[in-house]
């Protein structure tokens, strides 16, 4: 049973974060609506995808060091909420920002849970030997 939970906690944050990063990258497709030319479009795609690229780099690091993924996805969610509240005031801003920050918090929680389970199983293995 622990082995199944371990596999679930190992793969779920990685798969969900890949899906989340791809979802964030969809928002950059609005660059093609403008008449920016080739290099303007390339620059626009790059600028729109900076957060997704940062999360992708975080995912690569978090593949081995889960606490990094938990920390950065939490930080990203909090940062998004702060920036959204500065743009739109009131409860609408919180509800609106939780649509993006919520999945980031869930991914962070899964990374932290995986990190804690890995830490616990490593301490059990060390105490047995």
What does this structure look like?
- With 129 residues, this protein is an all-alpha fold.
- The chain has one domain.
- 85% of the residues lie in helices and 0% in strands.
Helix content: over 70%
Strand content: under 5%
Largest sheet report: none
Distance between the termini: 22 Å
Give me the secondary-structure category: mainly alpha
> What is the number of helices?
5
- Principal-axis shape equals elongated
The string of secondary-structure elements, in order, is: HHHHH
Give the integer mean of the pLDDT values: 89
Q: Which regions contain 5 or more consecutive residues with pLDDT less than 50?
A: none
Strands, count: 0
Q: Over all CA atoms, what is the radius of gyration?
A: 18 Å
Indicate how many domains the architecture comprises: 1
List the helices and strands and how they pair.
Blueprint: H1 2-26, H2 37-48, H3 50-62, H4 66-87, H5 91-128
Helix pairs in contact: 1-3, 1-5, 3-4, 4-5
């Amino acid at each position: 049973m622990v082995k199944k939970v371990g596999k679930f906690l190992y793969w779920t944050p990685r798969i969900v974060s890949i899906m989340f990063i791809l979802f964030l990258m969809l928002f950059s497709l609005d660059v093609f609506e403008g008449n920016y030319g080739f290099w303007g479009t390339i620059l626009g795609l790059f600028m729109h995808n900076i957060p997704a690229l940062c999360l992708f780099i975080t995912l690569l690091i978090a593949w081995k060091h889960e606490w990094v993924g938990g920390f950065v996805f939490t930080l990203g969610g909090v940062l998004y909420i702060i920036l959204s509240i500065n743009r739109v005031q009131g409860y609408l801003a919180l509800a609106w920002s939780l649509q993006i920050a919520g999945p980031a918090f869930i991914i962070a929680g899964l990374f932290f849970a995986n990190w804690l389970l890995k830490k616990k199983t490593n301490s059990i293995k060390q105490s047995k030997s």
